[in-house]
Design a protein that fits this description.
Blueprint (H helix, E strand, L loop, with lengths): L1 E6 L4 E8 L7 E9 L1 H5 L6 H23 L8 E7 L3 H17 L4 E5 H7 L12 E6 L4 E8 L2 E7 L5 H11 L6 H9 L24 H13 L6 H30 L3 E5 L6 H13 L3 E3 L11 H12 L23
Parallel strand pairs: 1-4, 4-5, 6-9, 9-10
Antiparallel strand pairs: 1-2, 2-3, 6-7, 7-8
Helix pairs in contact: 2-3, 4-10, 5-6, 5-7, 5-8, 6-8, 8-9
Bound molecules: 5'-O-[(R)-(carboxyoxy)(hydroxy)phosphoryl]adenosine and zinc ion (ZN).
Amino acid sequence: MLVLGIETSCDETGAALVEAAPAAAPSLLAQALHSQARMHEAYGGVVPELASRDHIRRVLPLVERVLAEGGATLSAIDVVAFTRGPGLAGALLVGAGCACAMACAVGRPVLGVQHLEGHLLSPFLSVDPPEFPFVALLVSGGHTQLMRVEAVGRYELLGETVDDAAGEAFDKTAKLLGLGYPGGPALARLAQGGDAQAFALPRPLLHSGNLDFSFAGLKTAVLTQLKRRSGAACDQDLADLAASTQAAIVDVLCAKALRAVEITGLPRLVVSGGVGANAELRRQLDTAAGARGVHVHYPELELCTDNGAMIALAAALRLQHGVAQPTREYTFEVRPRWPLSDV
Ligand code: KG4
Ligand code: ZN
């Protein structure tokens, strides 16, 4: 089975080709990605209308590229998968519309995929794929969730952020420090030269007794520190603030993820989503989990942030496990709000 995956939920246009034989693990044949980050940078964040228009420009050339690289034609595709939600409505409609049009043209069915399920399952394309069941820490720009994952399509929410997502905390703090958009990778780079103990930033909900997160207060704490320096923070102050912010976010993510592992008694943890690319998070989690005999699985670095491969993969796994049926009703209806526990 050949699955073409299309991702257009936010500011990356992704296309990929995944092959899935009945009893074998799906494999990635080709993938192509265009990031709109530079286009949105001037505005300090994603401009939805610009995002939609750019997806329109990029999506078909990316599809042509993966078909060429994968040595396939459109008529060789068995299912066209697209991100149905959550995400920006206009951006989602571009991917859904293109997927339905292409599939209809060659008489193939489509399958709408939940974007977070794509992130969650993305480690199945890594060199170290997990086994079910496991605890998943999903840390992206818009979501921070802990899930108990029994099987493909069986997800139980254990805890989530009550306000900002972890990626949002990275991005908003980076903005305060004068770094570009998206700020996560830039803040992580700056933090390398900083002292993580220099500023005592809060670890919100660390001892709340549940598995929820709260990151909105962190940017206020950073702003307070910057104001104390009355706009005269030196380069070292900025690096120290970056390191201290990263440490606060990573501490809370690690503590809660390990708590989830303890509560569920599951020996495996999967980390996915853009923040899963953070080296300090990986280092701290590997150390703490290793000491408890827990194995941590990550997606390959280039598959942490949004991409088409995870969408094609999620579709392939859903079809292999019989939890989804593709359709020839090309309604291209999208779900901008769509909780993972509802797939
Ligand atoms: O999963 P993703 O591509 O998009 C959403 O579905 O939201 O995640 C993007 C988020 C952004 O907030 C970005 O700043 C963050 O992931 N991010 C990082 C790193 N790489 C990406 N945050 C911290 N460290 C990184 N290395
Ligand atoms: Zn994402």
